[in-house]
């Protein structure tokens, strides 16, 4: 009887946000689309960084090395909830968790993916995608 590897999913996040997620500084990832996905997911650091300067103020010396990796898997988290931000006041209540400036809110609404149990994993180069993508050939505990 062969034992199949579980199918893992990942989400690409621009740096420095991906590094902030895996170190526990950021616990909500904001997107324009909702998700029903729950469970353990991998965090992929996108190849292109976020150009917004306000993201840099969240980087401490301890976190900095994890915000300077691009184009690969850098950690894992548990996705436990998807919040719908229908007005800016709800968005502002969670500011310390998502770290996006108030003017980033969109009147059409945004979604906050609530992330817990962050884990830093050894960097593994891997192609990313715009939404969740499957990572069938990667064991998150083993460096490659």
Provide the helix percentage.
10-25%
CATH topology: Archaeosine Trna-guanine Transglycosylase, Chain: A, domain 4
Would you count the extended β strands for me? 6
CATH hierarchy, class: Mainly Beta
Whole-number tally of structural domains: 1
Structure class: mainly beta
Secondary-structure element order, N to C:
EHEEEHHEE
Tell me the major beta sheet.
6 strands, mixed
| Span of the ends, CA to CA | 26 Å
Tertiary shape: globular
Low-confidence segments, given as residue ranges, are none
Oligomer: single chain
Rg measurement, Å: 15 Å
Mean pLDDT: 91
β-strand percent reads 25-35%
CATH architecture: Roll
Fourth-tier CATH superfamily name: Hypothetical protein
> Strand order of the main beta sheet, please?
2-5-4-3-1-6
3D structure, described in words:
This protein has 144 residues and is mostly beta strands. The protein has a single domain (8-130), classed as Roll (Archaeosine Trna-guanine Transglycosylase, Chain: A, domain 4), CATH 2.30.130.30. 11% of the residues lie in helices and 35% in strands. The protein has three helices and six strands. It has helices at residues 17-22, 88-93, 95-98, and strands at 8-13, 28-31, 39-45, 72-85, 110-125, 133-135. Strands 2-5-4-3-1-6 form a six-stranded mixed β-sheet. The protein starts with 7 loop residues before the first strand and ends in a 9-residue tail after the last strand. The model has no long low-confidence stretch (mean pLDDT 91).
